[in-house]
């Protein structure tokens, strides 16, 4: 199905849709803006990258994951649906710093989706700053406990 047809089907009702106080927002992991629009909805597009915070280890340097969308052809046991396309996501933990993650985002979007690339980079920077503040507060609390 084309992306336009999928958007027309899911724009009014989907699992990621949140309507509050007259605003229509999205909790889609591939949507880096948070706004429910055709251009920023990631679960419809074929090439999408989401920047999401992790809820795992507290002592980790960067609690940020990049979620990249992949599509692959696989064969099922059923002969009627031999070459179907399955969409799944691969998660990449940001271990080597924000610069490496930004390089991955730039390569993934290329020059075709510059607006989404900027939104993903903005979200990456905001999450990195929030992690820096969190780490600073944890270090200050640890120093205060030692004294």
Question: Could you explain the architecture of this structure?
Answer:
A hairpin with a 2-residue loop joins strand 1 and strand 2 (23-26). The strands form two sheets. A three-stranded antiparallel β-sheet has the order 3-4-5. Strands 1-2 form a two-stranded antiparallel sheet. The protein contains three helices and five strands; from the N terminus they run αβββββαα. Helices cover 36% and strands 23% of the residues. The longest helix is centred in the C-terminal third of the chain and has 33 residues, at 114-146. It starts with a helix and ends with a helix. The chain is of the alpha+beta class and 147 residues long. The protein has helices at 3-10, 98-109, 114-146, and strands at 17-20, 23-26, 49-53, 64-74, 84-93. The chain is globular, with a radius of gyration of 19 Å.
Can you summarize this structure?
With 147 residues, the chain is α+β, with helices and mostly antiparallel strands. The chain is 36% helix and 23% strand.
Primary descriptors:
147 residues; alpha+beta; 3-stranded antiparallel sheet; two-stranded antiparallel sheet; Ribosomal_eL28/Mak16
Distance between the termini: 63 Å
Main sheet attributes: strand count, strand direction, barrel closure: 3 strands, antiparallel
Give the helix tally. 3
Low-confidence stretches: 72-87
Order of helices and strands: HEEEEEHH
Strand order of the largest sheet: 3-4-5
- Report the helical percentage: 25-40%
Structure summary, number of beta strands: 5
Structural class: alpha+beta
Radius of gyration, taken over Cα atoms and rounded to an integer in Å: 19 Å
Q: Rough shape?
A: globular
Q: On the 0-100 scale, what is the average pLDDT?
A: 78
Q: Give the amount of beta strand, in percent.
A: 15-25%
